[in-house]
Write a structure and sequence with these properties.
Layout (H helix, E strand, L loop, with lengths): L1 H5 L4 E2 L2 E2 H18 L6 H8 L2 H5 L5 H31 L10 H25 L1 H4 L3 H14 L11 H10 L7 H8 L4 H35 L3
């Protein structure tokens, strides 16, 4: 579909045909690594009361769950991300990095995307401390993250003003759009470095928010006698 959008001009929103193909194939592999949806472990343990056992452990819940998620992502890179990256070039012309900083920047961006997505999922799950039933927040997260992260189409297709609002005002582009833009070299190396730095800023902010929410939730559990 994206190739059809490029049409006879051979490009769309600054992406050439090879970049669009790489965006799609790498995006499908990255989806399993970042894991936008499907994680409800924290919410389930809050609902059943098993979270009390987590609070007795010497490791902070945010640190414990993050370590587990990083291990999951490492396995997903080998089992879910590499196959699309290897199969795609067999059927389409893909974009290969032309600048040496692209590969380390892409690796750093993927790691930051994993941590950033974990922080977002943790916050959504943590609403169970107050709501018990988190199906509402989960549905909102599923609907919003897929579109605003760049999974369904590159966010560069949107008006420039809206792009800036999304990049600066929300963490969503850092989940998928930024790593994919770095990989296909949509921007210069300097701009790619700025995007990765912005990702890192959101990671620090949201991990701090996770710890703050967890601390407030633990106070609530103590007040309730939990």
């Amino acid at each position: 579909m994206l190739l059809a959008v490029a049409g006879d001009a051979g490009e769309a929103a600054g992406y050439d045909r090879a970049q669009l193909v790489t965006f799609v194939w790498a995006g499908q592999g990255l989806l399993a690594v970042v894991l936008l949806w499907g994680w409800t472990d924290l919410a389930d343990r809050i609902r059943t009361g098993d979270i009390a056992g987590d609070l007795l452990r010497p490791v902070h819940p945010v640190t414990s769950y993050l370590a587990t998620d990083l291990g999951r992502a490492g396995y997903a890179v080998l089992a879910r991300m590499l196959p699309p990256l290897l199969v795609g070039p067999l059927f389409f012309d893909v974009h290969l990095p032309a600048r040496w900083p692209t590969v380390p920047l892409f690796v750093a961006s993927v790691v930051l995307a994993v941590v950033l997505c974990f922080a977002c999922r943790f916050l959504v799950n943590a609403t169970a401390y107050w709501l018990q039933d988190v199906r509402g927040p989960m549905i909102l997260w599923m609907l919003g993250s897929g579109v605003l992260a760049g999974l369904y189409f590159p966010l560069r297709f949107l008006p420039e003003g809206l792009q800036q609002v999304l990049w600066i005002g929300t963490p969503f582009p850092g989940l998928m759009q930024t790593p994919l833009d770095v990989l296909v070299e949509r921007e210069s190396t300097a701009v790619a470095l700025e995007l990765v730095t912005l990702q890192a800023g959101w990671v620090v902010l949201l991990l701090a928010a996770c710890r703050l929410v967890q601390r407030r939730a633990e106070r609530r559990l103590v007040v309730q006698g939990g």
